[in-house]
Design goal:
Layout (H helix, E strand, L loop, with lengths): L10 H36 L7 H31 L1 H11 L1 H4 L1 H16 L8 H30 L4 H7 L7 H29 L4 H31 L2 H7 L5 H24 L4 H29 L2 H12 L4 H28 L6
Helix pairs in contact: 1-2, 1-6, 1-8, 1-12, 1-13, 2-3, 2-5, 2-8, 3-6, 5-6, 6-8, 8-9, 8-12, 9-11, 11-12
The chain binds protoporphyrin IX containing FE.
Length: 361
């Protein structure tokens, strides 16, 4: 597979991969906000800054909505995933079994913790109780992220399936799982930082605490990006030799260049905003576009590695059969109807927020 992926795939596979990637990128935006946002709030509460920090305030307010978004936006790639990699996905689910199913109660606990953290009741609670609530929320989403990574890598490790089943284990513990989950957690930080940056800009950067929040976001975004690249390299070292060689195949270079450029744009744009002590629309737009490119590039490389790790010819046949089953037009119809409903809901909320007096927000 040396042509630039996914342009060298048969039509049916390329169509499902494209739909999968487009929907996964939306999921990544929401889940990053939740993952890094809960981490930010937990750190602020632990260091005693939970109440005065404008970004922590914005995050607490929006996190329950963002979690709803992450879960809803997870359903679409989940559907395409099942068409694309039926056998490896279901096998990993079955092998992990209780560990995998535990994600549902964990997400429910996380959801309640977010609402509790946002409620008026918690404001009068002592520091250790507020810290515990925000740490529980973060832990729930970090466990969820880890579980998706664990499931993904076990699904690719076909050679391990029989032994894993025989051993009765319910956790797939490998250095590569930690490195890769760490990469997603670190990579979530710059995505959260730019979304929170847009939100803070909307409220205004006027006081000293607004400016110190801005500086914190800039620092976190840059540190998170460097951390994600470092852990990505650690992951590349931890995976077996054939996959590592594949990752450096000529097809990977355009995407690695996009990721490197996105890093550079971020450092420059956040550094500049730090210097002027303001959140600038053009800088935030540049960072948003750079991150969009980096997430797409990462998601494409991730898929190229997966297809190369599985029996590609067998997968292509399955996709061809699925495309001929007649579901595509139904999918297009419902995708259009549902997108229209989601957009109209968002417009309604936006109108409602605009007509609300500033001091009630
Ligand atoms: C806040 C909660 C969640 C977090 C933090 C989260 C995090 C993640 C992460 C880190 C990955 C990438 C795994 C990897 O490539 O190593 C991922 C993939 C994915 N997530 Fe989520 N996730 C969350 C909730 C959900 C939910 C509820 C669903 C389904 C309804 C979902 C659907 C997916 C799908 C389909 C993938 C792609 C898996 C694959 O291709 O193997 N996620 N998620």
């Amino acid at each position: 597979m040396s042509a630039v992926f996914p342009f060298d795939l048969p039509f049916a596979t390329a169509m499902y991969v494209a739909l999968y990637l487009a929907t996964l990128v939306i999921h990544v935006a929401f889940m990053s906000y939740v993952l890094a946002g809960t981490g930010y709030v937990a750190a602020m509460v632990l260091f005693g800054r939970g109440k005065g920090d404008p970004v922590a305030h914005i995050l607490r307010d929006w996190l329950p909505f963002a979690l709803g978004g992450a879960i809803t936006a997870g359903v679409a790639p989940l559907l395409f995933l099942q068409i694309l990699y039926k056998e490896s996905f279901y096998t990993a689910n079955l092998l992990l079994f209780h560990r995998w199913m535990a994600m549902i109660p964990v997400l429910m606990i996380g959801f309640y913790a977010l609402y509790l953290a946002k409620s008026k009741a918690i404001e009068g609670w002592p520091w250790h109780a507020r810290s515990a609530v925000s740490l529980v929320a973060f832990a729930c989403f970090a466990i969820t992220a880890y579980s998706w990574t664990e499931n993904h890598l076990l699904g690719l490790d076909r050679g391990e399936w029989v032994q894993f089943y025989g051993s009765g284990h319910s956790a797939y513990v490998r250095g590569s799982v930690f490195a890769r989950a760490g990469m997603w957690i670190a990579g979530a930080i710059p995505i959260m930082a730019v979304i929170a940056g847009w939100q803070l800009r909307r409220v205004g950067v006027d006081s000293d605490s607004d400016r110190s929040s801005l500086r914190r976001l800039a620092l976190l975004a840059i540190a998170g990006s460097i951390g994600a690249v470092g852990l990505g390299l650690a992951y590349a070292i931890a995976v077996e030799q054939p996959k590592r060689i594949f990752a450096l195949d000529s097809m990977a270079w355009p995407y690695l260049v996009i990721i490197a450029l996105a890093m550079a744009v971020q450092v420059v744009a956040w550094g500049w905003q730090w210097r002027i002590q303001q959140l600038d629309r053009r800088a935030l737009t540049a960072i948003s576009l750079a991150l969009l490119g980096a997430v797409f590039a990462t998601a494409i490389l991730r898929e190229a590695l997966r297809i190369a790790s599985l029996d590609a010819e067998e997968l292509f046949r399955l996709h061809q059969r699925a495309a001929g089953a007649g579901g595509v037009s139904m999918f297009a119809l419902f995708a259009t109807i549902n997108s229209a409903i989601i957009v109209s809901c968002l417009l309604m909320v936006r109108r409602g927020l605009r007509s609300k007096p500033q001091n009630q927000e």
